[in-house]
């Protein structure tokens, strides 16, 4: 079992119990969006590799991260296929875009903020896997618990890189994004997604049918 103490201290709030209820009522949709999240995480890592070719530490960390995220994508697809769940397009959650909207637009600030946002996305993913796993069937529970180690490592990698490439302490930016991230997690959403806030209804969304 991965120790989540550091992650919980990093995040400004815990996942609301209502979101866990939403997830259990929308498991096919949760898996579809989870697959999208893994693919987007790999894409983010690759984009950083293309943009910052002069940073060997970043290149190595992001290369490994992208491979792991794509492997997780494949694993989610395999579970979905076994369960007869079709992988399809979904409208994105407001979560990642809501965080990135606060990123500075020029470097080095843009890179630092992008890495901090990456740390929050990975930390929240890890926290959510741990929150929902105890209530899932054995196969899905085991799979989600197996992801905790890698997601926790990705969170630390992003945060270490942000500190490495910043000329000043990143505490203030981390605190800023922590507050923004908590609002996105606690405010209600109209549609359930893996990184959504709590949804007012437990009805399964049309995309999951």
UniProtKB/TrEMBL annotation:
An MF annotation (GO) of this entry: tRNA 2-(methylsulfanyl)-N(6)-isopentenyladenosine(37) hydroxylase activity
User: Looking at the record's lineage, which domain of life comes first?
Assistant: Bacteria
One of the Pfam families matching this protein, by short name: MiaE
Could you give a single Gene Ontology term from the biological process aspect? Answer: tRNA modification
Put simply, this protein is called: tRNA-(Msio[6]A)-hydroxylase
Which species does this protein come from? Oleiphilus messinensis
């Amino acid at each position: 079992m991965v120790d989540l103490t550091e992650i919980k201290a990093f995040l400004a709030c815990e996942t609301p119990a209502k979101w866990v209820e939403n997830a259990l009522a929308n498991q096919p949709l949760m898996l579809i969006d989870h697959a999208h999240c893994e693919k987007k995480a790999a894409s983010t890592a690759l984009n950083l590799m293309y943009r910052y070719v002069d940073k060997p530490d970043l290149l190595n960390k992001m290369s490994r991260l992208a491979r792991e995220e794509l492997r997780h994508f494949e694993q989610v697809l395999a579970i979905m296929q076994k369960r007869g769940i079709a992988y399809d397009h979904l409208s994105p959650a407001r979560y990642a875009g809501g965080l990135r909207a606060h990123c500075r637009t020029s470097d080095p600030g843009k890179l630092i903020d992008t890495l901090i946002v990456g740390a929050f996305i990975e930390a929240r993913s890890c926290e959510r896997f741990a929150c929902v796993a105890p209530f899932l069937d054995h196969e899905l529970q085991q799979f989600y618990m197996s992801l905790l180690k890698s997601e926790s490592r990705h969170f630390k990698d992003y945060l270490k890189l942000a500190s490495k490439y910043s000329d000043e302490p990143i505490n203030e930016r981390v605190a800023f994004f922590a507050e923004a991230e908590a609002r996105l997690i606690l405010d209600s959403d109209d549609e359930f997604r893996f990184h959504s806030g709590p949804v007012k209804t437990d009805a399964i969304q049309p995309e999951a049918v």
